[in-house]
Each structure stands twice: as structure tokens, then as C-alpha cells.
Amino acid sequence: MTAQTIDGKAHADGLGARISGAIPSFREQTGRPPGLAVVLVGTDPASEVYVSSKGRMARKLGMASFEHILPEATTQQQLLDLIAQLNADDSVDGILVQLPLPAHLDSLPVIEAIDPAKDVDGLHPSSAGRLVSGLPGLVSCTPLGCLMLLRSQLGNLSGLDAVVVGRSILVGKPMAQLLLAENCTVSMAHSRTRDLPGKIRQADIVVAAAGQAEMIKGDWIKPGATVIDVGTSRIVRDGRKTLVGDVEFASACGVAGAITPVPGGVGPMTIMCLMHNTLLAACRRKA
Ligand code: GUN
User: pTM for this one?
Assistant: First the structure.
């Protein structure tokens, strides 16, 4: 069997077209575009790339992008002051603080300072609590993108066995909640899980978000399963830097029914779900 490759870029392009199509009527009603503020502290090269691509995509779709690039030496209070200013700014609908923050800053109080109505990253405890409670709110972009891909691939997910590998607040925990809300039977696996291959072998859906390059092998996967690979690790293969996921793609392709590639799978959906959340937050704020 050769797995179908799930084209995340094509799905993201489709979602982007729907978002940009909705923006003119938002502008007509409010006299302004939806606005996304992205905050970066320091000069981490990967974070700089993420932040500039988020800003570029917002502008491409017709949103306003406010990029706040702060020096490494920024204090906790200065960062909290900026969040307060963005909370009060009516032209800002979404606030994202790029993580990880430099080691001297404490990310949790910063996330808690964001107005939950503008929490387009879905990281505020209020957003996380609303997700668990089944209340409408903003859901973290990566798990939301994974869910959209799964729904489009499989239709109704009800009753399927799903395993989520990784328990971060950014991906693993909200992903498990979203799958539970779809009536999947959900297992969460992590670094202390015993017999990970055995757990994965039982799953119709595997969401791999452990951050370990190619840790999940093809012969761990149930034949025909749908595999969503959130991992992005840079490794050197044959003397060349290569981006790989948490799943060993070549061997998994021989077993899975469908699989997301890295790159070109979950990544484009994450950024487009940020745009989706920004438009959603903007519409809810104007309502
Ligand atoms: N760093 C890596 N991914 C993300 C994300 O989705 N949100 C934030 N805030 N930081 C990140």
C-alpha cells in the first residue's frame, strides 16, 4: 500500500481564499480590516522567520499586521505593558506572542495578560478551559489545522481510535480535546508511555507532536491509518540539512492510508488557522 499524501498547502490555500473573500464585507461594516499583532522578543532565527511569514500572510489576505520586534533585554514589565496597550487598541483583533520567550521572561503571566477575546493562539487558560467545557472560544492553530485535515480526509471521526503523541499545551492537549469532541476514543502518549509502538498500532488516527525526528516507524502504524505529522526537526542526511517530521515518512507511506508530509502538511495549515482565528476574533468583537 502507498499512502495518500495529504496536501496541507492546497487545503491552506483553499481556507485562505475563503478568509480573503470574507474580508471586504468586514471592512465595509467596520471601516477597517481585521488586525493581527505579533510580538517577538529577541533574535531567534526560526522565530524571526515564523513572525515575518505570519505578517506577510495577514497582509496578503487583506488584514492589518502589527509586528512588534522587541530587544532580547526586554523586561517582563515592558512586555506586559505592550500587551496592555494591544488589549486596549481597537484596531487589534488578535495578539500572538511568539514562543519560546528568552529564558529571563516568564511566558505564563504574559499569556494570561492577553485579553481572551484576542487570544488567537488559544493559549490563555480561559481559551483552554472553554475548549474542555465545550464552549465557543479560540482554539490553538496547529491542532485546529490538524482537525480540519482529518475531517476533510475522513469525514465523520466518530468512534475512531486516535492516539496523540506529545502533551504540550500548544498542540497535544488541545488536539486530544478536539478529537474527544469529535467522539473519537483518544489516548495521549508521551515520553513516559510504556509500549508506544503497541499504543500507536491500535490507532485509526495518529497525531505525532513529540518533537523527536522520525521517532515513529512505519511498522508501528496500523495498516490504513491516517497519520498527521506535526513535527519539524532539522537533521543532516547524506551531508545535507533536511526538514523531517516525527514520523519516518518513507516507511510509514508503505503502511498508512494517508499521511501529511513535512514540509507541506501541517505547517501551512497552522499559519492559515491563525488567519482564521484572527478573522473569527474580529467578527466576534464587532458583534
Ligand atoms: N512557537 C512555535 N509555534 C508557535 C505557535 O503556534 N504559537 C506561538 N505563540 N509560538 C509558537
Answer: 0.97
